[in-house]
Amino acid sequence: MIKAEHITKRFGPVEAVSDISFELGNGCSLALWGSNGAGKTTLIRCLLGVIRFRGRASIGGIDVQRRGRQARALTGYVPQELAFHDDTRLGSAMGFFAGLRRVPGRRAAESLAAVGLSGHERKRVRDLSGGMKQRLALAIALLSDPPLIVLDEPTSNLDAAGRGEVIETLRHLKASGKTLVFASHRPDEVISLADRVLVLEHGRVERDTTPRGLWPTEKPVQVIRLFLSMAKESEAAGVLREAGHAVHLNGNGLCVAVPRDRKAEPINTLAKHRIEVLNIEVLDDMEIPGVES
Description:
Layout (H helix, E strand, L loop, with lengths): L1 E10 L2 E11 L4 E6 L5 H9 L5 E6 L2 E2 L4 H5 L2 E4 L11 H12 L4 H9 L15 H12 L6 E5 L7 H16 L3 E6 L2 H7 L2 E6 L2 E6 L1 H4 L6 E7 L5 H10 L3 E4 L4 E6 L5 H8 L6 E8 L7
Parallel strand pairs: 3-8, 3-9, 6-7, 7-8
Antiparallel strand pairs: 1-2, 1-4, 4-5, 9-10, 11-13, 11-14, 12-13
Helix pairs in contact: 3-4, 4-5, 5-6
């Protein structure tokens, strides 16, 4: 479905994406995992052919730079930031986008049904929960029944209930044969949805692995934030990644996703390298759906 060859993108002196290559087959799912600024969104924009880059990318055998419109016709895209008019009703919004996509009107109802929003056509956008808004964005992405769905941080602004709704919807879409590519920094999403994970940092692929490769445990995964001196953060991140931990920097400490019963491991690893942890914060539980504690 997707083939990327040596994708490189610079913004002035900054190399946002550096020599990334991978292939993804039909019906498979790929998570892009990494810190803020790791290159996830830029890579997505390259794959969609909406920015110029060095290298080559194709969707369904169609070159995204030479025939971008045809390649994007195979893709449903859900951005991180959604923009809907608050007074718009769901039915009207779907009808509007169906017209833009030049698809039959019945596709609006079918897409709403696919994301569990049938019966909500009269609701206004302002009355929707965060999870319902995200599912509306998914419904719009599904209007032309594309084989590929691309999502940028699909649950980043949602509460636990909203995240659960969206993840369950995406699981159903994957089961129906859709190919998924999504950026995420949440282990629950990656574990629930991904067959494969590209771990990105500073625009490069640090690891090409699987969720089980990142978290080889049946236990629920939890995120801890480690606070260190600024001078030590990059070194600490490298040490933890070398030890096999999934790490990302978020501008306020190091976030490390670990099994709930092994939260001390990152601290012990850093201690062996004489890197002092100044403080620790346990973030909200990110349990794997369907796995018992």
